[in-house]
Amino acid sequence: MAQELVNALEPELKRLKREYIADSLVTLDGWTDEILAVIRKVSSRFSTPLFDAQVARVAASTISRAEADNAEEFRDSVNRAVGVDFQMIAKPKGMTDYLEASTAENVNLIKSIPADYFSRVETLVLGGMKDGLAPTAIARQIHDETGVNARRAKLIARDQISKLNSDLTRQRQTAAGIEFYKSVDAGDVRVSGAPGGKYPNAKISCYGIARQDIGYGPGIYKIADGATWNGVKGLHPGKHHILCRCVGLAMIPGVNYFPEKNG
Ligand SMILES: [Zn+2]
């Protein structure tokens, strides 16, 4: 996306440079139309039915791969707890609908990326030209914006996968008849609320959630309810905050969970 834009814009910016730099206020309107036409020609390539179909394919295959990984991870975690090989990979009732809804949501998220990107670039290019910046300076701003955009896209992708994982695990645990989970944080300095870590004063403390005891044992909660922290209810592992890395360990009574000990 960014490469196509730069390829199309660079020669235009160079060609128009003489017009928009210095005392050429008279021709102000001429170049804006031309440069906008160049940007829109590139951006229109990312809003065609063909592009939409590609987006839908990418979203569907990403979601289904994440679902398969989650099924395997769930099976392994139950096997570790129970100590026997439990082969069933269940796709509980309602999960297909949930996966379709997630795919649709992600299609919209992905489609919003080029739209946002090109509108920011338009603002940058027009602003830069009005200020009489050299094409190389404008190109550098586009380059920076592209980096910001790529980091934002990566963050959205990671957060979406982590939320999907959290929801799928919860659905699988519930379908397997499991009632409680233990919240386990990532155990490093980036854990929110960890004393001596990077974010000791975070509003939602994954560290605290993994340790507080609401009556079922430290860090143990009902799957149906999730945890409460700082007045925020329904906090589920993997979704405590953006990029939360906590996991919910299935608590199986008599296997790895002995409720009578906790009263
Ligand atoms: Zn967390």
Description:
- The longest helix is centred in the middle third of the chain and has 41 residues, at 135-175.
- The chain is elongated.
- The chain has two domains: 2-175, no CATH class; 179-263, no CATH class.
- Helices cover 57% and strands 8% of the residues.
- Helix 3 crosses helix 4 and helix 3 (49-82) crosses helix 5.
- It is mainly alpha-helical.
- Strand 3 and strand 4 (232-235) form a beta hairpin.
- It has a three-stranded antiparallel β-sheet. A two-stranded antiparallel ribbon has the order 3-4.
- The mean pLDDT is 88.
- The structure holds zinc ion (ZN).
- The site of zinc ion has 5 residues, from loops.
Describe the SSE topology:
Layout: H1 2-20, H2 28-44, H3 49-82, H4 95-130, H5 135-175, E1 180-184, H6 206-209, E2 220-222, E3 227-229, E4 232-235, E5 247-251
Antiparallel strand pairs: 1-2, 1-5, 3-4
Helix pairs in contact: 1-2, 1-5, 2-4, 3-4, 3-5, 4-5
Bound molecules: zinc ion.
